[in-house]
Amino acid sequence: MKGFIYKEFLHIFRDPRTMLILFGMPLVQVLLFGFAITNEINNAGIAILDQSKDEMSLAVTDKLLASGYFKLNETLNSRDEIEPAFRKGNTSLVVVFEPGFSARFIREGQAAVQLIADASDPNTANLLSGFASGIIRDFSAGTKEINQAPVTIQVQTHMLYNPELKGVFMFVPGTITVLLMLISAMMTSISIAKEKELGTMEVLLVSPLKTWQIVSGKVVPYIILSFINALLILFLAYTVFAMPMRGSLILLLAESILFIIMALTMGIFISTISNTQQQAMLLSMFALMLPTILLSGFIFPIENMPAALQYLSHLMPSKWFIIIIKQIMLKGLDITYFWKDTLILVLMTIFFLMMSIRKFNVRLS
Fold it and tell me: What domains does the chain contain, in order, with CATH numbers?
């Protein structure tokens, strides 16, 4: 028994993949969950429309920026620039000061500030408006010595793109992304790994079928099934949850097909480095499932994460696809606003396809 246990330890330690699963995955998961799952606000991008530009409006702006919760992305000159600022994708909140802000505050003991939030992500919009409102109220409470009468700064909050703050506006894009990733990548990698594990892949390779025909035959069904799933989710979102489709449906479906193909190339690549279905599933869970949920901006705002995780999120295809879905469905934008995100998905598809072909050719040789 002692020798058998010793042999089993040696067997585990000699397999780098097993060691990675035993020790690497828990460490990475703890770090991801610890840093990614947070409701804190850090350096959220805001824009300022100061129609007063007096001493008090500048003081409120300084207090907002000094809190560490916000960073100034843009200074606006008119209300016509508010929506274009949101369309750029870097601004989550716009703070609007009324004309004569300081004069009215001193004369009447009250003034108005409007907060306009990008509610395509309702959780983040609520957090940002709540933090900003608290800071402004704190500033108002500290200015009682200016005017002996009761002084208040009225904060008016407006939620753009999602006035009712429906959670489905956030979960539908994320759900589409997760399901397409699971069906396209995970199921494909497991399917091809199964052929390798059972030894039937070698039978296919010596058949009259060419390599590209074998791979295509394995992945085409998942392209069709994934596309049907995307149609079903969009239909339910529109009919049951009243989610709007402000942009082009054809463009959204085309982007969905691109993402499906990209996920399939990832699945094929995972299958080329996996010898068993178990390895393919674990690698898929480790490389696809958790990052899609934690680092894509699906649930947790990326700007609240440490800088290292923010850079790592750029490598997540799901992040770019979720941005594209929200831009089309909620904001009604065309591809000129997210062509860079589309290009990133195309480059990722090419990269994983080339890596898969390379690994597959090494196996054949």
Answer: 44-160 (3.40.1710.10), 167-364 (no CATH)
